[in-house]
Amino acid sequence: CGAGMAVAWTTRTTRFHVLARRNEEVRRTRKVQERRRNAKCRHGKNGGGPCCGESQAEGSHDVRSNNVAQRTWRTCARTVGLEKMADALDDNLMAVGASALLLGGSTILGSAGTATKLAQACVSVAFALVAVPAFVELVDDLLGLNVNIHVLMTLGAFASLLLGNASEGALLLVLFSGSHVAEHKLTDRAARDASELQKLSPEVALRVRGEAEETVRVQDVQVGDVVLVRAGELAPLDGRVVRGECLATMEHITGEATPFHVQVGDFVPAGSIALDGRLLVEVTASADASTLERIGSMTMESIRSRPKLKMWLDGFGEVYSKLVLVAALALMMLGPLVLGWRYLPHNGVPGSVNRSLGLMVAAAPCSLSVTPLAYIAAISALARRGVILRSSRVLDALLSCDTIAFDKTGTLTTGALKLDSVKQWGSGGLDRNGAGQAEAVAIAGAVEQYAVHPIAQALVTYAREAKGLPKVEVDTFSSEPGQGLVAQVVVNNRSREVKIGRVEFVLRDLEPEQARAAELEVEEMKKKATAMAVMTVDGEVTLFCFQDQVRPQAQDVIHALKSYFSKVTMLTGDRKVNADSVAKEVGIHEIYAELTPEAKLEYVQKAVGNNGNQGRKQTNGLAMVGEGMNDAPALAASTVGIVLADRASAASMVAGDVILLGDAVETLPLLLSKARQTRRVVSQGVLFALFFIFAASIPAVMGTIPLWLTVVIHEGGTLAVCLNALRTLKNPAERTQTIVARRRIQEAHRTPALASGAASA
């Protein structure tokens, strides 16, 4: 009682109490979550999950942990101040450290043979520091008929106290509490990178209205407002650039160090850092729907979600703990009757009570319960590289997939057209020598600079980047919607009449023979080009052929994925000739082209062997990679839906299980290797846990090791499993990432040039 009063006085009057109160709510929340996981619904189901068709909404379960006896106990503990004292000391590193120092001091004083009463006082205070929160929780669990790890360890400690071994009981609680604190610290470390994502978004934005600038909270910025992003600042919200250009980076989110160029019309996700220049960005999403907010919420949701192993362990832990308690009681009662043991120690030989306590401590499933920490560490590591998982179960589901299917446009390709070739001919026939092509590109770029469709943007982009083009001035300009453009331009001091657009619109004014020759060439090029545009300049015809740009890293990614999947396929709605061209370039041999969204869905459902989302339970599954609205049904039906975030539709974002930021297809091998690594680390953790349980249980039952050494082995095993789980924070695919990053840097430094006979970027 005196020791308890001293502890109470200390916790009220020192900085130790202030620090403890600061974390009181965190500890209470954590304890409530643990109680709910260990609790049963009124029908006896474990884990607080859905009961007999009921939802998981708050209050939908009648949990036994709120019975009358427990409420009465908590009221009594609160009245006498015991609950407040327990909250201050629970999971408190300073209390554990102080208790350990007192135990060390008592050992020194006891070995010296002097100050025996002082040594006993040190043991009493050390025991009280760690026993008060353990005792409050023990009574609460026993009144709720919940037998778990805490019950086993606390019963062992108090049984040691009753047997006259207060120091061993205190050491048991010190090691158990210290291990528990370390477990929480390691868990927080594993989730730290993921939680940091939620802190990246700025709290304020610089809104521009007319000539005025005002600083407002990001929550007050509306869709359609214009915000200013200066050099070195983060984009506060998602938006499109309406003025300015700069180099930007998302390295702190995606891990990709190569900066990207941002100009008028480009999408800028929240969290992007402007490295130079100034941008005026028109906001396209509110603060609650911004990229960073979605990333942070999805990542934390995936960390809070429980993988199948964790769900199994939560259900198994209660049953196992009861079995351990029954086995310990049976050993204590039957040992003297069957094996001739004494109940209490005699002449240095441990009795059945000591052996049963050793079994109860050694067999507690502490180390097994922390093996799912590997999932949290893996999710955090992937989030640091721009790979966001909707649930921790995605890692297990990926390993059940034997097929991966890719959409083409926007997934294997960038979705942006690129000028691939230029063909030109006059009244004398086709000019295959490329004469005048530079002038034709310059004219087309000048005329199309006011248009917004993809073909026009490709022409303008190429004309701006190409070197050695003549200067073109546009005198007059008119547009026929859906057909093309008519303009009068000046090139090299000569006035030229220009028509550019659809084939039928441009060729209808040509001579019949010239038009027929042009039509034949167009029909031939349709077999190779993704898109085409025709231009006439004073009767001379120029044919521009465009191709969808294959992502520079796509070939490396497909090659790497073939070691993870038995089948890599392409599902696209594009023409077969275009699909074959891209598939040949990236190395895919199984192609399904000209598919409707319904046909894609039917293929995916057939591959996973279901008629809906039940396919997620199949052994052989399919992973689908896409981003468009037409991919959403297939993504939802696949075992794992993987979405490229930059161009993704809202429906695809909802259907996807994995979000790749920055359209980083090159992170797919990392995702697969991380899934394999997580399963390997979890398997190792289970083996380690079982090894330490048997290594401590067998000697404890045989009576060859004392209780304190049993505790050391048991808690050492728990920490070893925790440290092993943190290995998933490391990247197992660094070599692949380095190769892909090098290729991207090389692509970024290439300068477009006009080749003889064909213009290519």
Overall radius of gyration: 35 Å
Can you tell me the overall shape? Answer: elongated
Chain-averaged pLDDT:
75
Question: How many β-strand runs?
Answer: 25
Beta-strand fraction estimate: 15-25%
Identify low-pLDDT runs. Answer: 1-26, 35-65, 427-435, 611-618, 733-761
| Count of helical stretches | 29
Question: Share of helix among residues?
Answer: 40-55%
The helix-and-strand class reads alpha+beta
- Give the N-terminus to C-terminus distance in angstroms: 84 Å
Largest sheet, strands/sense/barrel? 7 strands, mixed
Question: Main sheet: which strands, in order across?
Answer: 10-23-22-21-11-19-20
Task: Give an account of the 3D structure.
By secondary structure, the chain is an alpha+beta fold. The chain is 51% helix and 18% strand. The strands form five sheets. The protein has a seven-stranded mixed sheet with strand order 10-23-22-21-11-19-20, with helices on both faces. The chain starts with a helix and ends with a strand.
List descriptors.
7-stranded antiparallel β-sheet, 18% strand, alpha+beta, 761 residues, 7-stranded mixed β-sheet, 51% helix, single chain
